[in-house]
Amino acid sequence: MGHKFVMVGGGSTQSPGILEVLRQRSEELDLTDLVLYDIDEERVSLLGQYTKMYYAETGSSVNVSYTTDIDEAFIGADYLFMQIRPGLNRQRAIDEKICIQNGVVGQETCGLGGFSFAMRVIPAVMEIIRKVKELCPDAWILNYTNPEAILSEAIYREFPEAKVLCICDMPISIEGAIAKYFNKDLRDLTFKYFGMNHFGWWTNVYDEKGHDLLPQLREDVLSGKIDTLLQSNEETKSDQYWIDTYKQMISLFKRFPDYFPNCYLQYYLTPDEMLEHDDINFTRGDYVQQGREKRIYEECRRVIAAGTAKDSSLHAGVHGNYIVDIAYAIIHNTRERFTVNKKNHGAISNFDPEAVVEVPAYVGSMGAETINIGNIPTFQKGLMEMQKAYEKKTVDAALTGSYQTALEAVMLNKTIPNYTIGKKVLDELYEANKDYWPVLK
């Protein structure tokens, strides 16, 4: 008996990288059936037809199908990879512009861009997990959907028994860049990390002899020897946004040199500097729509029209490998170490035990077993407390539809300077997202 994998949000432009890794590693995953499921008929049929052709012509024996019927997709599923985006990048760009216009960060997971995305995505994901419980209760859900920090808080609260792992490829991408800097194989290094998704810090980087490399990195940064890290991720290497991000991450480390920061902390600690880079007429959402999105769907159309994918190829990068590595660890009970989002339950001993945190864990057939971090310092803990309160309030707002709760969530977000701006941005986002958010009363 082989495994049935379902791509939930199979029409996403993030799917191709994962589809390529699944094709390359189908035997070790015992993958026999692959379903692309999406509510967007046009997108899922474009990527579905392409994938069917591409798999067949590369000699894959995996049975590929695509559908907009959730029952058909989920019945008999063993693994679901979830990355959905209600409102698509179109809504993302609208949110970004509303935020930037009001002088606050517009990023899609941080600040009120993340809040708006969460309000769109939480109801949709709750519906999907209810369906999983009904149709394939033993299936594992590996979630890549953003904003992961808030969404994981909602998922683990509402479905404490569900087999779900919320993951993000950002930590491993940064770890890859650190490994590259030291000319080391990523697998030979052990990273100690704590925080919440898009809101965390590395405390140590141990090499194969147990020697901590972080002091060396700190020294090289403080002495001005390096001002950026080279990315290990092929897809983003030539993307100016990511080039700037990796530079800003080193600049942040220089200013707060105790621990090495996750790059997304730039939106909370240096929001003014981030806004200087923003172009209200062409935001990140616009860039993705006119770049990756256009490229991928045009290529699907070209291949479908030609009737062959022989002269086409998909690229396997960090994003695809990370989620497949975790599925592999579950299937083969490897108990390999990954950074995941789970309820704290004492991993960070001086932080809310019921809060979802992002920490290293051993992953095997029973899921993820978190690694103890111990106490964390006041500065990081203080930032996390406020951010966690914001995340919890956002989940409350999405589940109850309370306007007052939404406003309180907004005021807890560090990117919002005062009530006047917070309320204005909230009201404008609500107006622009009427088709997607719960009704607020």
Automatic annotation (TrEMBL):
Keywords: Glycosidase, Hydrolase, Manganese, Metal-binding, NAD. It comes from Streptococcus rupicaprae. Residues 193-415 form the Glycosyl hydrolase family 4 C-terminal domain. Its EC number is 3.2.1.122. Its cofactor is NAD(+). The lineage of its organism: Bacteria, Bacillati, Bacillota, Bacilli, Lactobacillales. InterPro entries: Glyco_hydro_4 (IPR001088), Glyco_hydro_4_C (IPR022616), Lactate_DH/Glyco_Ohase_4_C (IPR015955), NAD(P)-bd_dom_sf (IPR036291). It is an enzyme of class 3 (hydrolase). Binds 1 NAD(+) per subunit. This is Maltose-6'-phosphate glucosidase. It comes from the Bacteria. The keyword Transmembrane does not apply. One of its GO terms (molecular function) is maltose-6'-phosphate glucosidase activity. Belongs to the glycosyl hydrolase 4 family.
